[in-house]
Each structure stands twice: as structure tokens, then as C-alpha cells.
Specification:
This protein is 15% helix and 27% strand. It contains 3 helices and 8 strands. The protein has helices at 109-116, 180-194, 212-222; strands at residues 19-27, 44-51, 70-76, 100-105, 119-130, 136-145, 156-158, 168-172.
Length: 226
């Protein structure tokens, strides 16, 4: 069989550190004694970093001297987005942003949250990749409990609306208030390189509204034809 010409592949090898974790998401709701009607209480996340050398904010992991586990507690604020009137000219709409605070905590953080009245919602199983340009990608699978016993992790199941062949992917960069626009533009440019495999779909926690059929149709539509 005659060949039209030689086939080559251009290869650049390297490595990206694999950072894996379990993250337990809590918040106040109307079943909590401390809940105040009409006053929003946003998420707190207890994150167990079990693979990787850095924390969520890029700091070195400091394992407890007694050989315990590395845990972080992270506060997540409400979603915000700049108004259309705040965008200049034909600049693309910025990505949503939210405030966050992350601190190192002890292994009893989950018991501590329960004592304070926070209600356990679901768990995120994730992997994180960090890039030199300040951008981080997290791919997570969210799990809900089949019963009320949060210690029984063997009974975790996929959330009903997440039984699709896809992961929740978040592209983010930590920034300050005055550099939100700069970080937003950087993320937009980075996301272009992931097209058509990354489908932008804002979601609030586990509330993903698109069905499996809709997701599959979008993937087929955006995938390049051979």
C-alpha cells in the first residue's frame, strides 16, 4: 500500500502535579437552629488534601507533626457579576466571581461545623491542576448521601442531575478586587484553547439544569468534524 508521505508527531514532554482532594460542603438552611429567615448564609467547605504539595491558595502543605491529615476550611461568598453598563465597548462579558477565604484547620473540622449548626449537603471528589500563568483548573464529581449518616461514605451516590459522562470543570484564578477584570480576561482567553471540549455552563452548587440529552447534543454540535 503506497503512502503519500511520512507522518510525524511533534512532542513536548513535561509534568503537571496531580492534586487530589475530598471536599465536604456545608451551609445553613431553614433546618438549622441558627438560620435567620431572609438572611443568606453561604457555603463553607471542609477540604481534605490527600495528594499534592500545595493548598487551595497555593501555599505549601504543612502536614501535622503527629502524622495526621491536611484539612482546610474555605468560606465561599455569593456569586457576583459586573453589570453590562460597567463593560467598556465590545469587551466580552466577564466571568462570574465570588469572595473566598481559606485557612488551615484540624482534622475535627467536620464535627466542629456540625456543632455550630451547619448542615452537610454533599461531597466533591476532585483533582486540581495549576499553571504558571496563575490559572487553575479543577475537575470534580459531586456526590450526595443516600441516607442521613454522613459518615457512611460507601453509600454515596451521584446526584440525580449529574448522572452524565461529564465532570464539573471550573477554571479560576485567585485575584484582588482591583484586578478582577484582568483575571477575567485571562480566563476567557484560556477557555478559548479548550474549545470545543469545555462547555461553559454556569451552575450554582449542585443545581445543574441541563439534562443528559442536552449535554450530549451540545458536545456533538461543538466537536470538530473529521
Amino acid at each position: 500500500m503506497a503512502r503519500a508521505g511520512k507522518c510525524f508527531e511533534c512532542v513536548l514532554q513535561g509534568e503537571v502535579e496531580d492534586i487530589a482532594y475530598k471536599e465536604y460542603v456545608y451551609n445553613f438552611d431553614d433546618k438549622c437552629p441558627q438560620y435567620i429567615h431572609g438572611v443568606p448564609h453561604y457555603e463553607v467547605r471542609a477540604r481534605h488534601v490527600f495528594s499534592g504539595s500545595t493548598t487551595f491558595q497555593g501555599e505549601a502543605v504543612e502536614m501535622p507533626s503527629d502524622g495526621g491529615q491536611k484539612w482546610e476550611l474555605r468560606y465561599i461568598g455569593r456569586w457576583e457579576r459586573k453589570k453590562m453598563s460597567e463593560h467598556v465597548g465590545s469587551a466580552p462579558l466577564g466571568v462570574p466571581f465570588r469572595s473566598q477565604i481559606a485557612v488551615s484547620v484540624g482534622q475535627n473540622v467536620r464535627s466542629f461545623l456540625n456543632t455550630l449548626g451547619f448542615r452537610y449537603r454533599y461531597m466533591r471528589l476532585g483533582t486540581r491542576w495549576q499553571f504558571p500563568n496563575g490559572i487553575t483548573i479543577e475537575a470534580t464529581r459531586m456526590k450526595a448521601l443516600k441516607n442521613e449518616d454522613e459518615k457512611d461514605e460507601y453509600r454515596l451516590v451521584d446526584l440525580e442531575n449529574l448522572r452524565v459522562e461529564a465532570l464539573l470543570v471550573e477554571i479560576f484564578a485567585l485575584t484582588t478586587d482591583e484586578k478582577i477584570d484582568e483575571a477575567s480576561q485571562k480566563i476567557r482567553r484560556f477557555a478559548v484553547d479548550l474549545d470545543p471540549y469545555f462547555i461553559e455552563r454556569p451552575s450554582e452548587g449542585k443545581e445543574i439544569l441541563h439534562s443528559t440529552a442536552t449535554l450530549a447534543a451540545e458536545v456533538r454540535r461543538k466537536r470538530p468534524r473529521p
